[in-house]
Amino acid sequence: MRPVTIAVVGAGHRGAEAYADYCLRHPDEVQVVAVAEPDDGRRAALVAAHGIAADRAYSGWEDLLAADRIADAVVVATPDRLRTGPLLAAARRGYAILVEKPVATSPAELEEIVRAVGEADVPVGVAHVLRYTAFFRHLKELLDEGAVGRVVHLEQTEDPGYWHFVHSYVRGSWRRADTSSPLLLAKACHDLDVITWLLGAEPATVYSTGALTQFRPENAPEGAPERCTDGCPAADACPFHAPRFYVERLRDHHAWPVTAITGDTSAEARLRALREGPYGRCVYRCDNDAVDHQVVALTYAAGVTATLRVGAFTEANTRTVRILGSHGEIEGRLDTGEVTLRRFLPRRGAELGGAPRWDRDAEGRSGLPDDDVVTVVTAPVDDVDLLVEPGRRESDGHAGGDDGLMREFVATVRDRRVRPGVRVPTHLADAAVSHRIAFAAERSRSTGEVVHL
Ligand SMILES: NC(=O)c1ccc[n+]([C@@H]2O[C@H](COP(=O)([O-])OP(=O)(O)OC[C@H]3O[C@@H](n4cnc5c(N)ncnc54)[C@H](O)[C@@H]3O)[C@@H](O)[C@H]2O)c1
Predict the structure, then answer these.
(1) 58 C-beta closer than 6 A to ligand 1
(2) What are 248-265's pLDDT values in tens digits?
């Protein structure tokens, strides 16, 4: 079967480095045949890398989507606040669509999109990449086979790491809710999606609290200037000193996050970008309002609960999950890929109908026999070593989730040629749930009240 063809709308970090990059590595599955991108350098780079015809390179989504359909699918990877226009225009043209999250930045916009996409009757998948990681798939399999009995509580943490946090949510594009979206929607709607998917249910109530405590002017070191490059007296004592991170530690790294600050990744260009652009600003003197830590508490039917914590103050860039059930518990950490299942009853004994064996294990740990504590390493993530070995990996890839999502999306678009009804992953109707929870949580955070969904 001929490869699926796609048009990339927004050739930034996600459009170029996640989705179009997949096409370069899998040309027999999918090819990029058109691009819409206002930045001349980014557009030219994509045209060159994919051999896109000159008349299929547009400077904005309006021109690309004004023309008749020129590809099987459109990937919409524009900034948060530029979603409805290209998404609905692509839907009207009859494209299959893969759209970045957040799908919308307000409840009204979300419902308008859900309604219009329903009327256009086109397949729309949302880039909730965590569902396509080996790590979360393993957790889902364990829950579905009843490994911990009845789930009573799930707790998840999402810690992008201190450097990623200040890059995106203090200095970068997601620092203000009014120009992008609140932290929970921008960063953690993935977590709300995966919690919903793992539990297989929608919550009944949402409560949230959180604040911006650290990255505020009153916490600036004495004498700190507007920019790190202006001779800051606190440079050596500040974990967020920009030249140390972008110029020294990432010296041999030439992809995101460096490409977010400058297309030319030479040391001189990086320094120039820090002197002139947003990423050289003192983290205590930015126009940011994104909270630097937030907690969400969810309740489900029959008293099942879940919590999510997201924040700035960790060294590692990772997610952790604990799932507590009537007959066991699961603990997992995304960056190491490790998932440990601890059963409360010895499985072998239970299966054989024998008495439980409360021995010590080979290492002398008290507790259950070995086969009742099972650790599986699903897929360790090299990218968290970014700061240890800069340049070893090209991009973060979300623990394999980016590739997994593209593989399934492309396969579904191809399948639809012969089986038109096949549902794309993760369907808009499913993704809308995570967004509604995020909007409710933000309402709760600002009012202090529990929101009933
Ligand atoms: N799924 C995930 O895990 C994930 C991860 C990071 C970012 N995102 C989301 O992906 C989206 C893009 O993020 P990014 O980091 O790639 O941002 P980016 O700024 O690097 O890329 C956005 C691109 O859209 C382009 N653009 C602006 N106006 C346009 C127009 N009229 N027509 C076409 N293109 C236009 C910009 O020039 C830019 O190149 C954001 O909404 C972000 O929240 C999702």
Answers:
(1) no
(2) 999 999 988 999 999 999
What's the token pair of residue 91?
């839907």
Q: Which two tokens stand for residue 291?
A: 């909270």
Q: What would you report as the CA-atom Rg of the chain, rounded to the nearest whole angstrom? A: 23
Report pTM.
0.91
225 in the same domain as 153 = no
Is the shortest distance between the CB of 13 and ligand 1 below 6 Å?
A: yes
| Ligand 1 center–CA 221 separation, angstroms | 33
Residue 318, SS3?
A: strand
pLDDT in tens, 126-146: 999 999 999 999 999 999 999
Number of domains the chain is built from: 3
Domain that holds residue 367: 132-215+289-387
Q: What is the CATH number of the domain that holds 94?
A: 3.40.50.720
Backbone torsions φ then ψ of 391, nearest 5 degrees: 90, -5
Of 280, 297, 322, the one marking the end of a domain is: 280
Rounded Cα distance, 140 and 146, in Å: 10
Compute the distance from residue 333 Cα to the ligand 1 centre, in Å: 28
